[in-house]
Design goal:
Mean pLDDT: 78
Distance between the termini: 34 Å
Low-confidence stretches: 1-37
Number of helices: 9
Strand order of the largest sheet: 4-5-3-8
Number of strands: 8
């Protein structure tokens, strides 16, 4: 059984400064842009979330939506507003449309694709544009990533603020939500022991796993620090560090 709902995902004005956040819509501004989606109640993820929302009062549902920058339409009934909240929660948590994760490509086809996989803040920013259906800005952003000099010549006057926001998103450090970090990019000839010692120089480590990547001569794995501050310091110090040969370190919070 499928129940369709119109989630009024609201536009983030490109004239306003953008900053990464745990849930981008908390800083979004409202507009009339809508997005037609289908909530599949055969999906256990959807059913589980709806079971949590169903007992809520209308006022509580509307308040949670508004806290996240989403305003229910004046003609929407109780059920439609609850479906909107279900969809918003699933969208923001990355669970809408199934739980299967896309596999990271072994080689990126463009600078834009690379940024979408390696720059969480940029991915979040681009998804804001996608949610509002702003195809013009999406095209400008993609061209700017792939051909920055040409894109600046073409769009700096009309999309200058957007390009500034793209630069800010690309430079923003990935958010650190826990002491556990996933890493990739240390040279394989460095060895597991040296890799662990490098990370231990940041702070005490409680767990460490490391293997050689199947596709590249680099180490990948996970490390759990004793405290979140050490994890933040590790990301700040090493994420994005150029390791030569076209590779860079990537540290992402888990």
């Amino acid at each position: 059984m499928k129940i369709s709902s119109a989630l009024l995902l609201l536009s983030l004005g490109v004239s306003q400064a953008w900053a990464p956040s745990p849930a981008f819509s908390r800083t979004a501004r409202l507009s009339s842009t809508s997005l037609d989606m289908a909530l599949d109640y055969n999906d256990p993820v959807v059913a589980e979330e709806f079971a949590k929302v169903q007992p809520m009062d209308y006022e509580d549902v509307a308040e949670e939506l508004q806290r996240s920058g989403v305003r229910p339409g004046p003609t929407m009934n109780d059920m439609e507003v609850k479906l909107m909240l279900v969809e918003m929660r699933l969208r923001l948590s990355g669970r809408l449309g199934g739980t299967e994760q896309k596999k990271r490509p072994t080689k990126f086809s463009s600078k834009f694709e690379e940024a979408m996989w390696t720059k969480p803040a940029f991915e979040e920013f681009y998804n804001v544009l996608k949610a509002r259906g702003d195809h013009n800005s999406m095209n400008v952003v993609a061209e700017y990533l792939n051909n920055p000099d040409i894109a600046k010549q073409r769009y700096e006057k009309s999309y200058g603020t957007l390009l500034t926001q793209v630069d800010r998103a690309l430079k923003a450090p990935p958010p650190v939500k826990s002491p556990k970090i996933k890493f990739s990019g240390f040279p394989a000839n460095m060895g597991e022991a040296a890799c662990k010692m490098t990370l231990e120089s940041i702070g005490a480590v409680t767990e460490f796993e490391c293997t050689v990547d199947d596709d590249f001569p680099v180490l990948r794995g996970t490390v759990t620090f004793e405290d979140i501050e050490s994890a933040k310091k590790a990301v700040q110090q090493y994420n994005g560090m150029d390791m030569g040969m076209g590779t860079s370190l990537e540290l992402v919070s888990l």
